[in-house]
Each structure stands twice: as C-alpha cells, then as structure tokens.
Amino acid sequence: MEAAEFCKIAVAALEDRKAEDIKVIDIREISPIADFFIIANGTNQNQIQAMRDAADEALYRAGLPVKQVEGNQNSTWILMDYGDVIIHIFSKEDRLFYDLERVWRDGKEIDVKEL
What we know:
- It is a single chain.
- By secondary structure, the protein is an alpha+beta fold.
- It has one domain: Beta Polymerase, domain 2, CATH 3.30.460.
- It is built from four helices and six strands; from the N terminus they run αββαβββααβ.
- Helix 1 (3-16) packs antiparallel against helix 2.
- The longest helix has 17 residues, at 45-61.
- The radius of gyration is 13 Å and the shape is globular.
- The two termini are 13 Å apart.
C-alpha cells in the first residue's frame, strides 16, 4: 500500500472522531523526512486522545505500525511518525501558535479525495 492510501485511512479515522480542519500536505518535493503531513486539531484533551487512538488503530490494522509518538495524554500537540506519513494532532491554540501550514507552505496542500 502506498503512503497516499495510508493518508486516506488516517484522515477517515480522524474524521470519525470529529477532527477539525484536517489538512494533508504533500512534502515529497521539499523534504526527505516523509511524503505527507496530516494536520488536524481537536477541541479538548479527550478528543485529541480519541483522534490519536483512532488514527493509530486504523493504520495498524492497515499494516502500518507507528514508528514513534511524541506527546502523551496531557499534550496539546501529538506527533505520530509512520515513516512516509506524519500526523500532527493539536489543540486549536497550539495549532495556531505553531502554524505548521505556514512553516511547510512550500509543500502542496492536497484534497485527500484526490489521492
């Protein structure tokens, strides 16, 4: 399965947990660290954890185990590294503060339905 397929699976899991403002950024042309970033935010700690758990379970079932996770149940930014796909789950405040979309603006924001 390609990284784009794993993105679709992860986005569906995040949508299922009512993630807000999900963005997929294609960084293949600008960085060797991954193919895609998925960025989303939740409204509270419980939702952020549910988003993390749902994405992790969906990708694991699809055959893509997580390589590393940064952040815990008290974190307002969780980074989940799956190799070619990296998921960032934020609180709304931290997402605005760190503004990864601006940092990675040279990447191409894509509609997951087009993958």
